[in-house]
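Bumping with the actual sequence this time:
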Amino acid sequence: MQRVFASQTTLHKLELFCLVCELQSVTRVADRMRVAQPVVTAHIRFLEEKLGVRLFERSGRRLALTPAGKRVYTWASDVITRTRELERELDLSVDREAGNAIVAASMTVASYVLPPLFATFRRRHPNGGITVPISNPQLVTAAVRDGSCDFGVCILDPRHDVDGLNVERLWIEQLILVAAADSTLVGDVATAEEIGVLPFVSSPRNQVRRELEEDGLRAHGIVNRPILLEFGHPEAMKQAVRSGAGVAFVMETSVRDELERGLLRHIQTPGLDLPVPVFLVHRRGKGFSDFQAKLMAFVREAAVAERPPDGPRRTTTPQ
């Protein structure tokens, strides 16, 4: 069988091709990569000549993939992803560090739990590198599946598709009710009836965190509460609550600092328990480097009795 590609089809050529697909412009890719425009064009022409198909067509001022180009893009993206994944597994990073890991994580976990946890791990392994892309749980599991990350740490909707993934519970977050320190909207304790009429700040609909919040409240008979503002990140939700916009259910780990400093007030909700499990997710059959395996074990061991890691207040580190 005749080989379609010659040995000159390097990973660099595929990376340039994928970048043209994403930016839809040879000029923009040349600027981004700091190379002459004809260099990028030559790489694209090389691929087209070897494949015998057109990869792009003009769509106004942008380049659009042809049907054949879309298939090549899917293949090239997979080659690049799997190659980078293998480099991380074998610790063959470009700068020859002792190890590398990419850990995709959902917003609250990535923003408030993992930074101090990974800082502690890096003190033990100073030559390793950790990258944490932050996204929603659906994108975290997608990144785990396609190999663009090594494992994920995130919340999950029970209806979430986890086919082909290993999923293990790490700890349980708690959604707690908070208000501004000087808020007169509610006292220090709120009943289910009071919660149902309070003005709320929440995350947008269809976000996993919002769905889990709604499911938990519905189980306690709380539906159709007034939601005045919606924000896609817990930091924005907290700022809105501090400004007096309303109350909010937030994960306890995201407000530790504000509660200790008296910037927010924890409203007790007797009989109302809103647990949110956090999971470690990785692809079945995936290999891990020694560095990645140690990082996964460290994350597993960080929680005590299914409670989230203590963050910056931790006085001892997991062994």
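The tokens above came from a reply further down the thread. The chain has three domains: 11-85, 99-170+279-313, 171-276.
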